[in-house]
Amino acid sequence: MTDHRLTDRDRALLVGLADRTLRGRRRARAEARAHAIPGAVALIDQQRRVARALHDGPAPAPPPTARAPALPAGRPLPVPRLAAAGALAVVLLLAVTLVWRPDGGQSVIAQAADLAKRPATATAPPSAGRVLRGGVEGVAFPDWEATFGWHAIGARRDDLGGRAARTVFYEHMGHRIAYTILPGPPLDPPRTARVVRRDGLDIALYRDPSHGGHDVAVFERDGRTCVLAGHVLHTSTLVELAAWTGGGAVRG
Amino acid sequence: MEPSRPRPGAGVTAARAGAKGIEKTAATRRRRLDPSRLDEHRGRLFRAAYALCGSRHDAEDLVQETFERVLRRPRFIQRDRDLGYLLRVLHHTWGEQARRASRRRTSPAPPEDFEAVTDGRAGPELALDARLAYAAMADLSDPLRATIVAVDVVGLSYKEAARSLQTRTGTVMSRLFRARRQVAEALEAR
């Protein structure tokens, strides 16, 4: 199992396969090529082992008393540039407002994604095995603790566009995400979202820049819209969590 | 199951042509780096610095010097590229520090430097792998180490890493393969 005969292209393909970043025909071509590489499976496993250790393993954390960055010593922006920047911001804001004016559904989804920044107002529902007790119109919140390590830490209820939304907050390795289930007819995700399919579930992914780069996943469970939002290292985490059915306990 | 890895930032890619114009416009605009938000990136930069230096104290100094350098004058960057930009500055700063001190090599990290980021849920195998992986990175060449730090430690996408390291995406991927391969061999040799 040596890699000295691999070309850089082969190495790139194996990395893409290991990280599952290839899609469609590129992935098919890469898999076909990998079949011709002796020991490709072991090489891919090696790649994943290291990536997992560095992604998910413990890491050196900065000391809690670390010195804060010094105050900005930069020169102030010249006034004309400030004015131009302000005018540009207004124009961009108008453009975004006009073109991205959300319909009702997208507005509700945006509000649901916004809940990721809000605090919990109630304790998390207790576990009932692979799901948490309670839910919304028959759709239960998953209990990811045993499988992924994400544990429920709190909950809240909100009225979003006339829908009684329930949210459960989960935490893992310092990251916090919000899982909101919206009752009523399904809502369309934002049209700018990128849709991926995992285990037969269509998951619309987008990044909400207004939340410091929060990732948002929108999908349906049993005809109800679910919104998973928060800051995670990789959007694939949201995909994995959204697609998890708990052996059928989470209705899909 | 190993998660697939659509990269952070990939979600902003427009799925439909209608949004592309706006995204392109917004993406090509430069904005001033907000000094008050630098601290949001401190954790990842510290891990990157640690992977480069191999010592907690040196990593702290490196992050601090990076911040000071960035704050010396207004910086204009394209949106959502703060982390890649900061990593590039950190890498340059480390290179200069290392040249000044003639200490390019790092030493393996002592176990006490490793803390579960929050709740210590990582199993002992994974914890050991992580510690050995950080130690093994000390033996990588600079380009390989910079690449694995950018992608696996900081969490940049291949494209973001390529931009940060000022190289091509394909180069990042092939370097990442070789870096992980060397680290994996160190894990297997334990």
How would you characterize this protein structure?
The complex is a heterodimer of chains A (252) and B (190). Chain A has a 7-stranded antiparallel sheet, with helices on both faces. Chain A has 252 residues and is an alpha+beta fold. In chain A, 34% of the residues lie in helices and 22% in strands. Chain A contains 7 helices and 7 strands, in the order H-H-H-H-H-H-E-E-E-E-E-E-E-H. The longest helix of chain B has 20 residues, at 82-101. Chain B is built from 8 helices and 2 strands; from the N terminus they run H-E-H-H-E-H-H-H-H-H. Chain B has a two-stranded antiparallel sheet. By secondary structure, chain B is mostly helical. The interface between A and B is large, with 75 and 85 residues.
Which secondary structure elements does this structure contain, and how are they paired or packed?
The complex is a heterodimer of chains A (252) and B (190).
Chain A lengths: L7 H12 L4 H12 L4 H17 L22 H21 L4 H11 L30 H4 L2 E10 L2 E10 L2 E8 L11 E5 L2 E8 L5 E8 L2 E7 L4 H9 L9
Chain B lengths: L16 H12 L1 E3 L9 H12 L2 H16 L4 E3 L3 H20 L22 H14 L4 H12 L4 H8 L3 H20 L2
Antiparallel strand pairs in B: 1-2
Helix pairs in contact in B: 2-3, 2-4, 2-6, 3-4, 4-7, 5-8, 6-7, 6-8, 7-8
What shape does the CA trace of chain A take?
globular
Q: Helical segment tally of chain A? A: 7
Q: Would you report the number of β strands of chain A?
A: 7
Q: What about the largest sheet of chain B? A: 2 strands, antiparallel
Largest interface: A-B, 75 and 85 residues
> Which bin fits the share of residues in helices of chain A?
25-40%
* Order of H and E elements of chain B: HEHHEHHHHH
Question: Biggest sheet of chain A, in brief?
Answer: 7 strands, antiparallel
Classified by CATH, the class of chain B is Mainly Alpha
Percent helix of chain B: 55-70%
What is the beta-strand fraction of chain B?
under 5%
Task: Classify the oligomer.
Answer: heterodimer
> How confident overall, as mean pLDDT of chain A?
80
Poorly predicted ranges of chain B:
1-27, 116-120
Give the overall shape of chain B, derived from the CA principal axes: globular
Over the alpha carbons, how many angstroms does the gyration radius of chain B reach?
17 Å
Cross-sheet strand order for the largest sheet of chain B: 1-2
Alpha-carbon distance between the two ends of chain B: 24 Å
